[in-house]
Amino acid sequence: GQNIDQPTEMTATEGAIVQINCTYQTSGFNGLFWYQQHAGEAPTFLSYNVLDGLEEKGRFSSFLSRSKGYSYLLLKELQMKDSASYLCAVTGRDDKIIFGKGTRLHILP
Amino acid sequence: DTEVTQTPKHLVMGMTNKKSLKCEQHMGHRAMYWYKQKAKKPPELMFVYSYEKLSINESVPSRFSPECPNSSLLNLHLHALQPEDSALYLCASRSGSGRGNEQFFGPGTRLTVL
């Protein structure tokens, strides 16, 4: 089976940095997604990590350690519009993509 | 262009109605997905088509019937739904395998079953 864990809620301050962690246990791991989802909207693709290491895209970075079953999403220079849910999802050898329960991020001014 | 389109945006239907949700992508992606999402929950996988063939059915009730007429289109036919089927229905597409194998979502159809 598959198990994906991420914190339910986090709070951070505008302008700060926040790290959202995701741990997973799955057979046949192929890659890990991060999505941002604002209330009432569809998820927006942020990153897809296949290899170990850090990938940076502007204010957002994503890290993967395959041996530890661990990933994090790093958000820098937080803005109020970053208040959203952040979803970690893993994919295996088939096309199945399974989502964690999501982390609701609250940004305080 | 990473656009996946879905119609309609909103749908209200009775339990005896038959309706269809439509999804379209023109990115040449080989895999297309249907997800169901209830409020404050993550997307829940329903079906996956790969190269126009159904590859994954997550034990979805038969009142939901997927169809992939061609590589760009994906439909979800709805019949005799229950009020608990009210949710956001999301379509997604995915390119292939390897490093560039991102998955992109459409805007969703918000379905209400009365």
Largest interface: A-B, 24 and 26 residues
Mean pLDDT of chain B: 93
The major beta sheet of chain A can be summarized as: 6 strands, mixed
Order of helices and strands of chain B: EEEEEEEEEEE
Oligomeric state as shown: heterodimer
Radius of gyration of chain B: 14 Å
Low-confidence stretches of chain B: none
Query: How many individual β-strands of chain B?
Result: 11
What structural category do the secondary elements of chain B indicate? Answer: mainly beta
Shape by Cα distribution of chain A: globular
Search tags:
heterodimer, A: 109 residues, mainly beta, 6-stranded mixed β-sheet, 5-stranded antiparallel β-sheet, globular, B: 114 residues, 7-stranded mixed β-sheet, 4-stranded antiparallel β-sheet, 11 strands
Provide a descriptive summary of the structure in words.
The complex is a heterodimer of chains A (109) and B (114). Helices cover 0% and strands 58% of the residues of chain A. Chain A has strands at 3-5, 9-13, 18-25, 31-37, 44-49, 53-57, 60-65, 70-75, 84-91, 97-99, 103-108. In chain A, strands 2, 4, 5, 9, 10 and 11 form a six-stranded mixed beta sheet that branches. In chain A, strands 1-3-8-7-6 form a five-stranded antiparallel beta sheet, with no helix packed on it. Chain B has 114 residues and is mainly β. Chain B contains no helices and eleven strands. In chain B, the strands form two sheets. In chain B, strands 2, 4, 5, 6, 9, 10 and 11 form a seven-stranded mixed beta sheet that branches. Chain B has a four-stranded antiparallel beta sheet with strand order 1-3-8-7, with no helix packed on it. The model of chain B has no long low-confidence stretch (mean pLDDT 93). Chains A and B meet through strand 4, strand 5, strand 9 and strand 10 of A and strand 5, strand 9 and strand 10 of B.
